[in-house]
Amino acid sequence: MISLPKTYWKIPEKEDDFLPSACLLLEKRRELATVEQALAAKKEEFQMKMEELQDRREELERKEGQLKQAILKFDKFLKESNWICIQNTAASKTLELGQIKLAALNLFQMVAKHRKLSTDVPPDDTEAQLDLVQLCIGDLIDILANFRKSEPTPVSQPEPMTESQSELESR
């Protein structure tokens, strides 16, 4: 009998060690196919998530564009609305100035007519008109002050008596 070295007399530790290498190769191929299927499923899931994220990104970009347009429209509305407000304020102030100038012209014409002065002051020279009105008012104040000085001081009159007071005096 031939004696073999002890290294060839190895006892298998696991059941897999009894399987021939062709079976092991088939089993490894099956495991590889399972792993590849799982990898393909993960790739497909990843691809679907990427497509979903791309759709969401496109939707966000579309909404961002809409928001920018809305902001531009609102900015236009605010503008210059401010411009309408400025125009209204200017119109109001212009009207008020016109009324003041007409009132000054009216006072000037009344003073000129009363004093029989020439009205050679231009109608748009409000300052000169008001200067003449001021002179007239100053003259009237002086006249009134002189009149009050020359007026005698009034003597106070006794108050009329009531019936009960006159009865008391007669007693």
Automatic annotation (TrEMBL):
Alphabetic keyword roster: Coiled coil
Cleavable signal peptide: none
Coiled coil: 25-80
One Pfam family here: DUF4200
Biased composition, class Polar residues, residue ranges: 162-171
Chain segments carrying region Disordered: 149-171
Domain DUF4200, residue spans: 25-81
Protein name per UniProt: DUF4200 domain-containing protein
Taxonomic source organism: Phrynosoma platyrhinos
Highest classification ranks of the organism: Eukaryota, Metazoa, Chordata, Craniata, Vertebrata
